[in-house]
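Sample 1 of the test manifest.
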Amino acid sequence: MMTGQPIAEGLFTWPTDEPQLLGARCRDCAATTFPSQSGCPRCTGRSMDVVTLPREGVLWSWTVQGFRPKDPYIGPKEFAPYGVGYVDLGDVIVESRLSEHDRERLAIGQRMRLAIVPFVTDDPDAHWLTFEFGPVNDSDEGE
Amino acid sequence: MDAAIVGIGIHPFGRHAAMSGRDMAIHAVHQALADAGIQWRDAQFAFGASMDGGQPDTLVSELGLTGLQFVNVANGCASGGSALAMAEIAIRSGAYDLGVVVGFDKHPPGAFNADPEEHGIGRWYGETGMMMTTQFFALKIQRYLHDYGIERRLLAQVAEKAFRNGEMNPNAWRRRALSVDEIEQSLMISDPLTQYMFCSPGEGAVAFVVCRGDKARTYSDRPTFLRAVSHVTRKFGSFEVFSPWLSPERGSSPSADGARRVFELAGIGPKDIDIAQIQDTESGAEIMHMAETGLCEHGEQGKMIDAGATEIGGSMPINTDGGCLANGEPIGASGLRQVYENVLQLRGDAGERQVPGEPRTGFTHVYGAPGISACTILTR
C-alpha cells in the first residue's frame, strides 16, 4: 500500500486495500453529497450521515487542464496537463482528477474506477495522497 | 413603478495601465450624470460593484460628500447585474426617485484564482487543481455537446462573431476580427475550449443614472425602462462553477430560473425580444445560455447560428457589442455593459453595429460564480 498522508481528512477511507470516497446522505430525502456536509442541500434538513461511495462509476463529462493553475495549486512548477472529469456513481456525480489526459482515450459513458495515488509536488518532504478515477480498461471505452 | 435609465456612461474596457479602477468608475459616473443632465449632489442613492477595483462607496471622496446611501454589492461575475437589480428595487419600492449604479473593476492578468475556503470548499480542491472556472465551462459544454448532438465547430463560430462585433465597438478590448481557423488553432485551454474561445479578466467601468419611470422625461428625451429585473441563486440539481459534486437528479440552472422569472414579471416572452446580451464567459456559454434563457430550444442553436439568426442583422441578434469575449470581463462592470449596449441599441445610437428595424425590447442575462443569475428586460 502507498505511503503518505491524505491531502485532506474525510475525503476517502484510508489506509485500506479498497478505498472509497466519503460522502453524506440525507436521512430524510436521500440526497447525497461529496465530500460530506452537515446540511442537506435538497430538503434543507440537518440529518446527514457520512456514507462510503461506490468505487466504480461512469464518466459523465471530462476535460484536460492545459495550463498551470495559480495558488493554491501545489502541483509541480513544471506543468504537465491532467484530466478532470465528473464520474456518475449512481447517487452522486463526483468531480475528480483523471489518470488519463489523452483526449482520444476519454469518452462520456466509459467505466471508471477510483484509485488513491500520490499527489506530486516540488516539496521533497511532502507525501500527499489524493483520489483519482481512471478507465477500468481500454476495451470498455465508449460503452 | 418601473425604473428608467436616463443616463449612461462607460470607460472603455481593456487594459489601462495609467488608470486605477476608481478612476475609470469616476469617468463613467460623470459621463452618466452629464447624459442625464444632473449633478452628483442630485443622486439620492447609489449601488456600486467591484471585486478588485476598489471599494465602491469610497468613490464619494472624489464624486462629492453628499451623505447619500451608497451600498456595495458583490456577487462574482454577476455583481454589476446585482447592483442594477438592487437599484431597480429601490426605485420600485418608492423609497427613492433618482440614483446612480456604477460597476468597475481592474483584475490582474490571467485566469481568476478563487479561494476554495471562501466558497466553503476544502483547500484540497484548489491544491489539486480543480478550483478552475475554465474547467467548469469546459466540463459543462462537453456534456452539453454530447447531450444535444451539437457540433464542436460552433464554438469557434460563436467566438468569430464576437470578435467581428467587437471590431465595430470603440469601447471593446479585442477589436481585431479572428478567423474560425485562428480561434480553433489557438492554445487548448481546457478541452474542447481554446484560448480565443474564452474571455479574459480585464478592466473597465459602466455607470447609469436611474429614476422613477414617470419622471424619466425630466432627465432624458430618450429614456429606456426597466420593465423587469430578476436575480436568483442556484437550486438543487443545477451544475455550477466550483462543484465537487453534482446531483444525478438534474434540475434547472439559475440562468433558466432567472430568465423565466424576468419574462413572467414583464408579462412577455422570448419571442418578443428584439436584441439580447447573454453571458458568454466562453463561446460554449453563449450556446448553452441561448437555450437556458429561452431564446431557442435546446439543440436548436446550430440551425440558428448557421442561419445567421444571432448576427446583428439576424432575427435574434446576440452579444452585438462583442460580449465578454471581445470586451473582457471586469466583473463589477460586465453585467452593466450588457445593459449599456441595449440602451445604446434602443436609442439607435449603436453606430455601425446598430441593429436594424429600430429595436424596442432588449434582454440581458449575466451569470456568476457560484450560480447566480441576473436578467433584465429593457424597453423604450
